[in-house]
Design brief:
255 residues; alpha/beta; eight-stranded parallel β-sheet; 9 helices; 8 strands; 40% helix; globular
Length: 255
């Protein structure tokens, strides 16, 4: 069993965990998972993440508005997110970003909400957890201009894109996609990401790695991601788990 795992992106407030959430979260330290970062996707989800983080000493959280949640925002969404960000268990603004995957997205609104939240992160001296899907060109333009601290989560892009992101000082979050058969680009990227900017994550309950693909994901499955990463980099999984955990604690200010 591996030890010292830090899952830097999880969604344990998701309803798929309703049957066994307390048992699963409470038992993670015995399974080698020392730390979990929950990512908020809306005002309500961010509040739920805080409530969970309050219950477990090894669970922390981020608050923010996901780009798929920008339509129909309450007028006071910004004030609510800013207020929640003052909580002692909140260590990031996120997940925030751009998502052009589905038809009907509002590009201008996504940009405006992202930029507001990046400014908030800078004001509060918190890192940002960035969600970027089918929008890397536009996202890079904003990141070059605003230069936030943070992590690009669920990275599946090219080595070239990874190099540019790390040149901006950003961390790269690697999850289950690394283990998929068609994951050629992210495998190439994994080989060039500096070890001091590497994070491991699950995005659970989504994106379970091989050999668990198709099942509900949870933080224990990071072991499979670390093993694949170690194979690519010619090292051992436990060393990468330790390094990635140290990186996560440094980024999120967790002792």
């Amino acid at each position: 069993m591996y030890t010292g795992i830090f899952d830097t992106h999880a969604h344990y407030a998701d309803s798929s965990f309703d049957p066994d959430r307390a048992e699963l979260l409470g038992g993670l330290p015995e399974e080698g998972v020392d730390c979990v970062m929950l990512a908020g996707c809306s005002v309500a989800d961010s509040r739920a993440c805080i409530a969970l983080a309050e219950q477990y000493p090894h669970v922390w959280c981020a608050v923010g508005i996901h780009p798929e949640q920008v339509d129909g925002l309450q007028e006071d969404w910004y004030e609510q997110i800013k207020g929640m960000a003052a909580h002692e268990k909140v260590r990031a603004i996120g997940e925030i970003g751009l998502d052009y995957h589905y038809e009907g997205y509002d590009r201008d609104l996504e940009h405006a909400v992202l930029e507001q939240q990046l400014m908030l992160a800078k004001e509060l001296r918190l890192p940002a957890i960035l969600h970027i899907r089918d929008a890397m060109g536009d996202a890079l333009g904003i990141l070059r201009q605003m230069r936030p601290e943070g992590v690009v989560h669920c990275f599946s892009g090219s080595a070239e894109t990874a190099r540019e992101l790390v040149s901006l000082g950003l961390y790269i979050g690697i999850g289950g996609v690394l283990t998929y058969k068609n994951a050629r680009k992210v495998v190439e990227a994994m080989a060039v990401i500096p070890e001091e900017q590497l994070l491991f994550e699950t995005d659970c309950p989504y994106l379970a790695p091989v050999p668990y693909r198709g099942k509900r994901c949870d933080s224990r499955m990071i072991a499979a991601v670390a093993e694949r990463a170690a194979e690519i980099r010619g090292t051992d999984a436990q060393s990468l788990i330790r390094i990635a955990a140290e990186n996560g604690r440094r980024l999120f200010g967790i002792a």
